[in-house]
Design a protein that fits this description.
heterodimer, A: alpha/beta, eight-stranded mixed beta sheet, B: ten-stranded mixed beta sheet, three-stranded mixed beta sheet, 13 strands
Chain lengths: ~230, ~220
Amino acid sequence: MINKVVANADEAIADITDGKTLMLGGFGLCGIPENCISALVKKGVKNLTCISNNAGVDDFGIGLMLKQRQVKKMISSYVGENAEFERQLLSGELEVELIPQGTLATRCLAAGYGMPAIFTPAGVGTEVAEGKETRNFDGKDYLMEYAFDADFAIVKAWKGDIAGNLIFRSTSRNFNPVMAMAGKTTIAEVEELVEIGELDPDHIHTPGVYVHRIFQGKDYEKRIEQRTVRSAN
Amino acid sequence: MLDKNGIAKRIAKEIKDGYYVNLGIGIPTLVANYIPEGVNVVLQSENGLLGMGPFPFEGEEDPDLINAGKQTITTLPGSSIFDSAMSFGMIRAQKIDLTILGAMEVSENGDIANWKIPGKMVKGMGGAMDLVASAKNIIVAMQHVNKAGESKLLPSCTLPLTGVKCIKKIVTELGVFDVLPEGGFKLLERAPGISVEEIRNATAGKLYAEDDVPEMVVG
């Protein structure tokens, strides 16, 4: 069995250089690759294009990379929780492409399935459709949206084995499996790294063929964005 | 006039037994509190969950378990979890029976704007464009007028669109409306104590109202 284990986040991202396109898994702060983001901040690579559903918050997640001006362009569906992001956007320092969330997910999926493009009705008749090819199927218009072309996908899983098979936990799954499939090089950080044979093949969400490097992360903060509770009575 | 909970309560009556429902952020979220006894529904959260349960008790919050509004939630017996592509796959394939979402503007031909105010707000559309482009049944829950007192039911939207010709029903604090296929808002029910005249004055788009529009029964 192939062994894809690297020592830590620094080693996993060592060949990520200025100007690369990265996919980063997660929804809000849920299921984000915390260790790799820290390593990218430490390394200080710049002019990155980041494909991620959200842009973190001011002091966590991709927000940390934005603060250091490492991101040239963000491709996201919702970026509402980040004041620094908004400042850079309005001042023109940051290029932003906002796209529908399902389109974002499915453009990842297409890349992982080896399909060059998808057709979706999301955005027809809106500014999202500007400059895009439209096709009519059975009387309904669809936009042609291209599969993403990302140099690296960086995902966070719950468990993984040394061959790169991944299992996600709860809604921290979100974009992680489709991004894992979509990167030219995919890096997975996991909460628990196990030997081969320890994961039930029936329970694997992402087959190891899609994963190139894997390491056990540490010190997960797992910050909660909106802590909502009900009263005990 | 209805308050936000009143709007949610009225919309809850549109939910039928066996429905899979996607609730947007804001007033739509409140609808979950008023689903009638005996009506079994499954709530979808587009970050990848069917069978969304209530907020957790204090101390039981799980950072790995959130809804599309990034709030901590719980699962229920029978819940299922999936990735974002499958989540929007089931939306696109019309497996979700009803979508309830908020809006900044709705036009009399069913266009909706709810994601961007140029120069002021650039948060993004999230899943709204996917939802309105594919859902077979969408109800808009919103205030009838904006903070400046201007009607949100318009001849045509002034803000960047989220979707075109997709809204068929609207519930506001003043009434329940159908968006007619040929264009225009048809008043179906008045909120308690609200006259047709008041509704007409608050509606910039074409309004059709019969002589005896019934007062809605809430709850």
